[in-house]
Amino acid sequence: MKEKRPHVVVIGGGFGGLATVRSLAKADVDITLIDRHTYNTFQPLLYQVATASLNPGDITWFLRAIRAKQSNVRFVRGTVLSMSHDSQEVVLDGNVTVKYDYLVIACGVTANFFGIPGAAEHSLPLYRRSQALALRDRMFATLETSAMNDGDRELRMIVVGGGPTGVETAGALAEMRNMDMPVTYPEIPASKVHVSLVEMSPNVLGPFHPSLRDYAADALRSRGVDLRLETAVKEVRADGVLVEREGEQEFLESEIVVWASGVTVHPSVASWGLPQGRGGRIEVDEHQRVRGLPNVFAIGDISVNPNDALPQLAQPALQEGQHVGKVIAREVSGSATPKPFRYRDKGTMATIGRASAIAQVKGLPRQKGFVAWFIWVVVHVASHLGYRNRIATMTNLTLKYFGWRSHNAIVGETPLVVSREPKLIESNPPAATPAPRKGRRATAASALSSPSPSDSVDSAE
Questions:
Q1: In the annotation, is 283 catalytic?
Q2: Which of 121, 144, 168, 246 is an active site residue?
Q3: All domains of the chain, ordered by start, with CATH?
Q4: How far is Cα 315 from Cα 15, in angstroms, rounded to an integer?
């Protein structure tokens, strides 16, 4: 009778989880991949879905498709309810119990609202596909309602957080306002639509070199983004955000608040019987092994080595997943344990918009502008899972960035709130003037970001 092979259970089908599964393709093990969704989401491009440039299917990959090239893995859809490390089992919703010989926890993190009143209830995070779609639909519903009822009303979209997600989202919203809305929403003057980015620190993109941070801030301002640095969010309400700068408070009216201000471990992890360290992250050793549990590993954003904390980015998760797969494969085969995990920093990058990005790669000159933007596009397309996703993303991004005459947006449901006041439409609205092209952008941006009478009360700037 054939001896039963070790069972490796991987929780989470993100970057780290899939890296672990793939690194065990030739190992003498059986693998069960567990995720509450049936798809992997390419999170770096979620904001492109939220701003109507990509289809949600462009950035999602069917997790069961992994069996096409790897027969020793199966997928189980479920949410972890509890764990017992003495009996080595994981309990899922639906009364499903999964036994393991090795357990790899790679389930990622969730939005961190830092206890700010109203943030969880009234803001829109950008960490899941459903959240990106919710933001997209809210944005177009707001625009359609304004176009039908009162195009002269001031509209403001607020992005909280000056990291890559916040900067990229604010830049995309500003470009949509500058380039697309004058054509697609002539009823709404572009000067009435404001994009604000709120950040507590003195700079956006804090981990980058000061020269790159300054470039990003200037690029945002040139697109007409109302950049509010050293400004704290005190409360989020259904109709806007209360901010504070230098002791003075100001209320910014807004129907759309995008939350891109940090992540935290999901509260349920506290009941999993695991040692937690800074930020609630699971403490691991130099091999990503959970402290005190020799057959349990944690990788990616949810894990932290107290002696060598790494940034919560895709690359650390990928490399940790590959290392854990190697450790398990060698233990199963009786080979020597590999050297301790060592992170290879491949650099970081962020884009502000069309032909504008920054890239910081160790050992290479710092890049900004078109060159960095081109690198950003190539890396993000190449990093996709599956050829269909790469081709679809490349096609849609090419149409967006190079199809200057196209203003087509990928939209969904857009509920319309119609005013009770009677309205008569007699003729087409006057043609709007699109924002000037390169060379005149600063002039256009200054006009778009100039304060209106309603912006002048208790300004924190």
A1: no
A2: 168
A3: 7-36+78-109+265-333 (3.50.50.60)
A4: 8
